[in-house]
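tmp note - Large ribosomal subunit protein bL21
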Amino acid sequence: MVYAIVRAGGRQEKVSVGDLVTLDRVDAEAGSTIELPAVMLVDGEKVTTSADELSNVKVTAEVQEHLRGKKIVIHKFKNKTGYHKRQGHRSELSRVKIASIA
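out:
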């Protein structure tokens, strides 16, 4: 089984060909392809972590859609003072499909 660990949006994701992965918003149109930098490549028994060898590895992904994450509610409260503050947040996300690992 071939899979790669890629750097995407400040995190690392384990991907293989055909996987749908949700990442932080990427600056690309839906339907376009992007390249993700590989941190590690596993090809059967062979594990590649060398920066020189990984510079030749290309992980391409196709942007499927842009979406927004689940709403989180931030509520700050201080006892006995009457202070409370509510705030919401939704993350900007992109769903990509891994096209190839070469």
